[in-house]
Design a protein that fits this description.
homotetramer, alpha/beta, 8-stranded parallel barrel, globular
């Protein structure tokens, strides 16, 4: 599917405030006008963007080697192209499990060697960069989207960065955060819509599906969706994943756990391997339907 | 003031409020437990719900007979099964065009006779019910979602009602508004997600795509989406429409105008007939893909 | 305090969207430019606006005569100048107590005769206007702020109207709703900030205290605050009431119940008479402090 | 998908999430139950909390020595007890002025020696701590409220920390962020309400005045308000500052610039020295009125 069809270029609305904040001039590297064609980001051999669709799957937190091996085997079989797992966890409370740290990264490395899946993990501190040597894509979480110290440090690396939208970040602020990374020389950036704060207690966040289409118009960077954090409920992950793909997303990040009830974090929103396999089939059906020539 | 009075204990309210407001018991008519199977609503021969997918299309406001005939011909040809048009318009300013009123309804009637399309129009005042005799589905707008006077009056009719979610209504409040209608004896209700208020100026509202999946779990009533009002931009209507369908929507309401630049209201979000025809193809592709038995 | 000091006229920010919606031209009757001096609204002898401060107090719902008499005696003694009580209640669920209706209004009339307090009660249906003959100020609730049918009907009466801000209404939409009433010939309007929907579960709504100052700059109408509905917790009513006065509010509406634990609705946010009396002292202290010449 | 899976029962999450996140047990150091009496934080001799009221004033960004000296002289004369100025600026765009850095801190040091005012400045990177040796209170900005790396580093210092609420942070998340600092051993923390994201374009953020009262109930830490960032408009700073004080704030942080029209950042919301002096008088009047024994 040529996603530029659903672009935004011809819209007159952006108010003066918006254009001042994220005008053509300001998005020197990540704006469509800077680079009209879609960018493909190669993450350890798995490509994303410009029609290359990728699914990143795995547990919220790396708990132990067995857990990761079991989940990795299952998600690879179902068609995921990258493995995710948190070794450094940003938790609301300082007394909650903070992740396994360096030894969590080592477990991810063993998963990578065992299954050939590129690995994705969140970095919270630029001083940890050495520990992430073997990690294929560095994730910046929603809480750190405007941690400019971290963004600038990542701009000086040559590693792909998965930048998640902040809880109350506007689309323009997300693009500007990407511009911080790009300004340092690193344009291997993948953006991720993961829900924004709102008033309805039925879902953890409101998944802003239109933001995907807006972003695809404003930037050449790949845009993926995280329906797990957006909704907070396993039952809602598949319909929201399909919606994201239908709106033009270039990929998905999905939490999968072989025993969600016993997960160290975010068990309520984690899919079992079986459920994940069903989701992959539904997502592929939507992806196939929209990639037919007739809709280009 | 003794500040310690405001202790943590008091915060048990959120969930108790929710369950009190929209618990199983409260949704006596519209809840899934009251009626496990999906409801089909027949609108003048066009069916919606339980796998019957329907698209309602037409101009935001009825402007004149020629406009309606031209648009009706086009949307029928593209596959729409109902025609919409506002005769009584709820406008933010009292000095904006308020709709043609009764003569607007007469124009809709002529469209109905000419093209055999059931007609849908917004009612703002229960005292106007007689004027809506020939209208097949009565629309309750977002601003009137909790106009209980109007809801109760509609509950005593036998006409299908299209109930739109309020700008800041929770999912449970939307269901309770439907329950007001159903409590009067009328359960021919179709719910509509049309975006909620949020902070990002890039879209008119935030389209809450997950709400569709949540609603389909909580109620047996059909749920449709209005991507035109949700986004406010013609370019975003197709991707958001496809997303809604992928999330499980039973239908769509789309604004179409033969000359959006000259529309009396909401021109920016109206599709041309050509664009609407392309949208119908994309939507059908998603609908087909997901209706395969394998994904049910 | 001359509230125009905290006016807004010299600000350059209003975006084009805002100025289009609520520009000078559109606020023909309620805008400051239409009428630079503050308006005083006389409600059955109790005046509000232009330095005249008024407190409206009473129970959320009229439950029975004894309740109203006990509460009215207490709030009058503490300094309230009007009595409020709901006879027609807009409830989220159709199965919750909907108010005593006409007999509730009769109880309010007896309170009025007994204590000489003007009475304020919510109207939900224009067809009930006759029942409100003896009511001194007609309240339009948040859910009906854009019930234009009701607003237009009230515009044709000569009764003061207390117009509450909708859950997700912008300041400009509130002013436009007032303009609907004023366009019909009735400019005896009092605006009320009562909190807007947001994400924090600690309070029922977010009380938008700055909106009071913004409104005082944009309109000559009196602006009051409802800290009871805004916060939803009795403990928070006094600090928020004082804040509203400090920001320039011309009055307050406060829920008081002689036995909050047994209230038919909103008991959690109702003050006991003793607590209300303490609140009145704190509010007066703030009011006095700011009305000194030095701060004009 | 079996839609009935998403039953009402699941909605018990909101409160359990809250109590898990910020229950009595979790707020081991900053909760009221851990320390019932109000904490006083001594910032280079200026005290805040437990009835000690303090105003921090100065420019958004340190631009040059002359600017700081002129503003410092003025705010000291008007009664401010601390001087603020940003040397490291978190800007949405990487191409905007990022602050003077280390030389900005040197200018602040000279202000401190010249006027005897303790200085407050924002830190964005734990690696800069040495540069902040002479700074009396380290400010953590809204964007870094959940930069746990930074919070943990500050927890190991013995310097007062001014922690600002994030744009979409709940009250409980703010308290948990403070707990991150306190868990490291540093309980010299001042919290700051500075507005949250919402939908109304009239103000930059919505100032959540009730949050001040809620926080004062939940924690023994001092709570101040920043009406400059909350509103974004100079005209609104005074009424919102007074409101904050009336709601129980222990202090204020106010942006002052001798020539707002030429400010390097945030000129629209900066007060002139004259306006700041008037604000101080109004604030003092409210403070005095409420500190009378009768209202405690």
């Amino acid at each position: 599917m040529d996603r530029r069809i659903i672009g935004y270029q011809d819209t007159s609305t952006p108010s003066s405030v918006v254009s001042r904040r994220a005008g053509e001039g300001a998005l020197r590297n990540v704006g469509r006008s800077a680079h009209p064609d879609d960018t493909v980001v190669d993450v350890g051999g798995a490509c994303i963007g410009a029609g290359r669709f990728a699914v990143i799957a795995g547990p919220c937190a790396v708990e132990n080697e067995e857990q990761c091996m079991v989940v990795a085997e299952a998600v690879k079989r179902a068609g995921a192209s990258m493995f995710r797992g948190g070794a450094f966890k940003p938790r609301t409370s300082p007394y909650d499990f903070q992740g396994l740290g360096a030894s969590g990264i080592e477990i991810l490395s063993r998963v990578k060697r065992e299954f050939g899946l590129p690995i994705v993990s969140e970095i919270m501190d630029a001083r940890d960069l050495d520990l992430f040597d073997d990690v294929d894509m560095l994730q910046v979480g929603a809480r750190n989207m405007q941690n400019f110290t971290l963004l600038k440090a990542l701009g000086k690396t040559d590693k792909p960065v998965l930048l998640k939208r902040g809880h109350a970040a506007t689309i323009d602020e997300l693009l500007m955060a990407a511009e911080y990374i790009a300004a340092g020389g690193n344009t291997r950036i993948v953006l991720c819509e993961r829900g924004i704060r709102s008033f309805d207690p039925r879902t953890r966040n409101v998944f802003d599906v239109a933001a995907i289409a807006v972003l695809k118009g404003l930037t050449h960077l790949p845009v993926i969706a995280d329906p797990s954090h957006a909704t907070g409920h396993a039952e809602l992950v598949a319909p929201v994943a399909c919606a994201a793909v239908a709106a033009g997303a270039d990929g998905l990040e999905i939490e999968v756990h072989h025993n969600p009830g016993a997960a160290a974090s975010d068990g309520e929103q984690s899919l079992t391997p079986e459920r994940f396999a069903r989701l992959m089939k539904r997502v592929s059906a939507v992806e196939d339907a929209l990639s037919h020539a007739a809709f280009r």
